[in-house]
Predict the structure.
Amino acid sequence: MRAAITAVGGYVPEKVLTNKDLEKLVDTSDEWIQSRTGIKERRVMPTGQATSDICVHAIQKILSKRGISADEIDLIIVATVTPDHVFPATANIVSDKIGASNAWGFDLGAACSGFLYALETGTKFIESGKHKKVIVCGADTMSAIVNYQDRNTCIIFGDGGGAVLLEPSEDGNGVIDSILRSDGSGREFLNQKAGGSMYPPTHESIDAREHYVFQEGKTVFKFAVTNMANVGREIMDRNNLEGKDIDFLCAHQANLRIIDATAKRMELDDDKVLINIEKYGNTTAGTIPLLFSDFENKFKKGDNVVLAAFGGGFTWGSIYLKWAYNS
Ligand code: UT7
C-alpha cells in the first residue's frame, strides 16, 4: 500500500507586486530581476490575513472537488516558516476554521524544503495504516518577514501556497521514494535572526531589522544549485530512472537558473520542467503545491513525477512519486 496524492488545491492572494513596483522601493530594475531570477511579479496577502487563510482556501478547494467533509480528515500538517503565531500551531487554527473536528495537526518548519518534509511525514501516517485522509499544506506569508528595504531579498519572495490530500492507494501509484537531507551549519546564510528564544524581540532587534529574512544570496545559490541537482540525480539513479522516464519535474521555485541547472543534471527536456516562478516568486513552502494546482490538468495517472527542493537550514531533498489520478 502506498500514500497517493488524490487531490490538490492552491491559493494566492489577489494583490500583485510587480518588479516595477519594487523599482520604487529599492535600487533595482525589472530587467535585473527577470534576468537573474525569472520573476516578473509576486502576490501579497492583505492586512489581517495570514498563512492559515492560504491553507483554508486551498483545503476548501480540495474538499469541494472531492465532495468530502472536513470531519473526515484525520491529520493536518502545515509546512511553513511564517505561522500565524509562534503558538498555537497554524494547523490548529486551520482545523478550527474549516471545521475539521476529528483531526489533529502540527506545523513543520523546514523553510523551502518544508513541503517535501511534510509530504514524507504525511506519507508515513498513511503507510502505517493509522490514517486514511491526511492533508499536507505548504504555505507562506513571506511579506510578513520580508524587509522591503533590502533588495537582496524583497525581489525574490511572495505569498501563497497549497495543499494536497493523501489517501491509501493499492494500484502502485503514490509516493515511491524520498531522499531528505539537512545541514545546520548552513544556518548563518539564510535565516530570520530575531524573534525566537535565542534573540527574543526587543526594540534593538526591531531597529536593527533582525526580525526579517536575511540571505547571503550568492552562497545560498551555490549550495542550492549543487545540492538540488545532485539529489534529483540521486533519486533517479537509485530508482533506475533516466531522463526519458520522467514525465515532470516539480522543483522549488527559488530562481530559474537553479531550476535550469537541476533539469540539465537530470537530462530533462524543457517541456517536462514545470515553472510558475514568473507569477509568484519564491513562496517558500508554497512553491511545489502551487505547481501541482497550476499544472494539475497536465498530470496523468501513472506519470513519473520528481519533486526537488533546497532551502534555509540548510534543508534539501527529492521525492519520487507516481501521479494517482486523471483530472
Ligand atoms: O529559496 C530558498 C533558497 N534560496 C535560494 O535558492 C536563492 C539563492 N540565491 C539567488 O537566487 C541569487 O543569489 C539572488 C537572486 C539572491 C541574487 O542573484 P546573484 O546573481 O547571486 O547576484 P549577487 O548577489 O551576486 O549580486 C550581483 C550584483 C551585485 O552588484 P556588484 O557587486 O556586482 O556591483 C549586487 O549588489 O547585483 C547586485 N544586486 C542587485 N542589483 C539590482 C543584488 N541584488 C540586486 C537587485 N537589483 N535586486
Q: What stands out?
A: The radius of gyration is 19 Å. The mean pLDDT is 97. The longest helix spans residues 217-238. The domain at 176-322 is CATH 3.40.47.10 (Peroxisomal Thiolase; Chain A, domain 1).
